[in-house]
Amino acid sequence: MASVSKLSHIGQAGEARMVDVSAKAVTDRVAIAEGRVLMAAKTLDLVLAGNAKKGDVLGAARIAGIMAAKKTHELIPLCHPLPVSKIVVDIAPDRKLPGLTVRATVKVTGQTGVEMEALTAVSVACLTIYDMVKAVERGMRIEGIRLVEKRGGKSGIYRAKE
């Protein structure tokens, strides 16, 4: 079980555990995640025109992403509850997809990172977009959810390769 012990959330016997971060330094930490919702050009036009039956798709998705980031510790087992200081959810249309690119930036001053909060924000924002316009197009696809960048903490800076 040597390889299992290298995972911080797994104990020596393979049991799940919450990592003790109390000895870690308090630092500024930032994580940026992104994902995409692919849809037909007509569906994208409907969203951008603000004509979806359920209302403001982009506004609802932004709020959902922010709320999700704040509740990450309730959704993902073993995540620490964090006093996040900043959450920004940006949604940009991309006619080449066609669809929407969702990007979340989360910041905290603390002892552990906010990667999961950023990824959760993107995931829930994408799901909200799907939910808001699924009556128009059930075949939309949510793709490419990933960590783009993280800063802070002992491991320093990570940037995804394009």
Shape summary: elongated
Distance between the termini: 34 Å
Query: Biggest sheet: strands side by side, in what order?
Result: 2-3-1-4-5
Rg to the nearest angstrom?
A: 18 Å
Please provide the ordered H/E string of secondary-structure elements.
Answer: HEHHHEEHEE
Structural class: alpha+beta
Strand content: 25-35%
The description of the largest β-sheet is: 5 strands, antiparallel
- The number of distinct helices, counting runs of at least 4 residues, comes to 5
> Residue share in helices?
25-40%
* Counted beta strands: 5
The parts where pLDDT drops under 50 for at least 5 residues are: 1-5
Task: Give the rounded overall mean pLDDT.
Answer: 92
Characterise the protein shown here.
This protein has 162 residues and is an alpha+beta fold. It is built from 5 helices and 5 strands. Mean pLDDT is 92; it is low at 1-5.
Tags for this entry?
5-stranded antiparallel β-sheet; elongated; 162 residues; alpha+beta
Layout of helices and strands:
Layout lengths: L1 H4 L21 E12 L2 H9 L7 H14 L1 H4 L10 E9 L4 E12 L4 H19 L7 E11 L6 E2 L3
Antiparallel strand pairs: 1-3, 1-4, 2-3, 4-5
Helix pairs in contact: 3-5
Concise summary:
This protein has 162 residues and is α+β, with helices and mostly antiparallel strands. It is 31% helix and 28% strand.
